[in-house]
Amino acid sequence: MTRTRRPDPARRGRDRRARTLLPAPGAPRVDGDRPPTAAVVGGGIAGLAAATGLAERGVRVTLYEREPTLGGRLSGRPTVLADGSPVTMSRGFHAFFRQYYNLRGLLRRTDPGLDRLRALPDYPLRHGSGLDDSFRHVPRTPPWSALGFVALSPTFTARDLLRMNPVAALPLLDVRVPEVYERLDDVSAHDFLHAIRFPQAAHHLAFEVFSRSFFADPRRLSAAEMVLMFHIYFLGSAEGLLFDVPDEPFPTALWNPLADYLDGHGADVRTGVRVETVEPAADGGFVVATDTAERRHDTVVLALDTEGLGSLVARSPRLADPAWRERISRLRTAPPFLVSRLWLDRPVAADRPGFLGTSGYGTLDNVSVLERWEGEAARWAARTAGSVVELHAYALPEDAVHDVEQKRLREQLHRVYPETRAATVVDERHEWRADCPLFPVGGYRDRPTVRTSHPGLVVAGDLVRTELPVALMERAATSGFLAANALLERWGVRGQTLWTVPDRGRTPALRGLARFG
Q1: Which of 29, 34, 178, 407 is the most exposed place for a label (fewest CB within 10 A)?
Q2: Cα-based distances in Å from 379 to 92, 94, 251, 252
Q3: Mean pLDDT on 382-404
Q4: Are residues 289 and 220 in the same domain?
Q5: Residue 31: its pLDDT value, please?
Q6: HEC-encoded secondary structure of 443-484
Q7: Given this model, what pLDDT does residue 348 score?
Q8: 382 and 328 share a domain?
Q9: What's the rounded Cα separation, in Å, for the pair 68 and 63?
Q10: What is the C-alpha separation between 489 and 485, in angstroms, rounded?
Q11: What span, in angstroms and rounded, lies between the C-alpha atoms of 197 and 217?
Q12: Separation of alpha carbons 224 and 192, rounded Å
């Protein structure tokens, strides 16, 4: 993965400086009557990407997912409302940014034109003080994006820009991986913004758009992760901050078609199957023991969340080496988060956006009006003259009382959209989870890389160090393809071409300034 060339315009976005990463050269598929086998443990984005990259090239893939559905943190489950309506409850709203080249490449397997993604017209942000920000009219190409935002924003003015500490802010101008971690991983996101004198009125912009995306308190989050986010979405990429969303629930739009695609490539997708242990076999392969059987595989991809990876490694005492196992044991999850979905008996105001980021409304972090973009919600709303509203609260206390927090979110919704006070809740569903990786101050060195000490064992997921400028869902997809590529390279097979945003500041002048930081 060392050679680079100009991006393929069919797969990258609009950014001509996006980086293309070519895999090691090799054959298009595995040869022979007995193709190698691979177990992919985990059916989220990372596991699905790894399974796809392997199965397409002739590897016999078995994908194990303990939940009854695929998608990981983007899964969905069927449920029936009090009015008898069958609906899908998911883990909550996710934005598919245009910088997610590799995730979008995965989705193109079943949707070549990405027709099942719908563009939202804006990324609006509202503060409890009454200030509103928008990215709709902000130029997408740096540095005009930053200058345009300052010109248009009521919370981040030119006067604020002049008050900032320019020397402390210089690292934002030339972000590289892994250097950004060497420089800023021992600083919190909160302290970094304080050092550069980021205007207090605009703090919610950085926290809501960037650090809160990690479901963590900015005082606990590594500044390196937040600065990388600034680079990916704002200062380093010309794709902008607008995004797309699936036009139907996740299973319908994304994962059911991909499961059929994998089946067509000979993959064995096993949902509702829990992997208990993974142990090295005497012949160099692995024995994967589930809650029902044991099976040998030549190679293994561990594509689990933080807790799942830690517990599986703890139950598999001969896996990899002691130093790696010790690092895995130190990984932690981010604080709990809550997703509340309310089916209301009347519509919200017609001008309410499909998604709204919020700050200064207690624990409420954003509000979605699902019928603005999701077909299932739109059909229910049209039939009942109601609305489907979703509320998110991130980084809640470990001892949060569920009923209290759910009520608090609804009260904050009434502040944001006052017309909802008069609405009756036809039904509601709540998802309490604590399975996102925590990227704490100084934690980068403990995170696993794709490769391990065993050449047949690889790791994928958004917790993985990729040494590339990717994050969140895109890190999951990218690491999944990287894991597949690492195994394919062993067999002399060419893997998946990948894309990322530029891996450094966009202009020589800005890169030169950054050296003084």
Answers
A1: 34
A2: 19, 21, 17, 15
A3: 96
A4: no
A5: 87
A6: CHHHCCECECCCCCEEECCCCCECCCCCCHHHHHHHHHHHHH
A7: 98
A8: no
A9: 13
A10: 6
A11: 19
A12: 9
Domain that holds residue 266: 23-72+250-332+446-496
- Please give the DSSP secondary-structure letter assigned to residue 265: T
Distance CA(21)–CA(101), nearest Å, equals 12
Give residue-wise pLDDT tens across range 499-516: 999 988 776 666 665 665
Instruction: List Cα–Cα distances, 503 to 93, 196, 470, 482, 510, in angstroms.
Output: 28, 23, 10, 17, 14
| For residues 124-135, average pLDDT | 82
Residue 474 reports pLDDT greater than 50? yes
- In the chain, the number of structural domains is 3
Same domain, 279 and 406: no
| pLDDT band of 67, cuts 50, 70, 90 | very high
In a domain, residue 4? The reply is no
- Residues 340 and 350 both lie in one domain: yes
Lowest mean pLDDT among 11-15, 21-25, 65-69, 389-393: 11-15
Q: Which of 436, 412, 419 is nearest to 359 (CA)?
A: 412
Does an H or E element contain 416, and which?
Answer: helix 402-416
Query: What is the model's pTM?
Result: 0.93
| pLDDT recorded at residue 173 | 81
Residue 93 lies in a domain: yes
In 3-state terms the chain splits into helix, strand, coil percentages (rounded to 5) of 35, 20, 45
Beta-ladder partners of 163: none
* CA pair distance 48, 74, nearest whole angstrom: 12
Confidence class for position 1, pLDDT limits 50, 70, 90: very low
Rounded Cα gap, residues 221 and 296, in angstroms: 40
- What are residue 133's DSSP bridge partners? 125
**Residue 203 banded pLDDT, cuts 50, 70, 90:** low
What three-state secondary structure class fits 390?
A: strand
CA distance 363 to 128: 12
Can you tell me the mean pLDDT for 279-293? 96
Residues 507 and 143: their CA atoms lie apart, in Å, by 9
Instruction: Write out the two tokens for 162.
Output: 């002049």
- The b/e string for 285-321 (b: 16+ C-beta within 10 A; e otherwise) is bbbbbbeeeeeebbbbbbbbbbebbbebbeebeebbe
Taking alpha carbons only, the member of 374, 391, 392 closest to residue 382 is: 374
Residue 89 in domain: yes
Q: Which of 114, 455, 95 is nearest to 301 (CA)?
A: 455
Strands (E), 66-210: 76-80, 86-90, 96-97, 117-119, 125-127, 132-133
In 3D space, the residue among 189, 168, 179, 198 whose CA is nearest the CA of residue 440 turns out to be: 189
Q: Show the tokens assigned to 309.
A: 């990876």
Average pLDDT over residues 286-307: 97
Read out DSSP for 6-23? PPPTTTS-S-TT-EEEPP
Q: What is the mean pLDDT of the chain?
A: 90
- Beta 19-21 vs 498-500: how paired, if at all? antiparallel
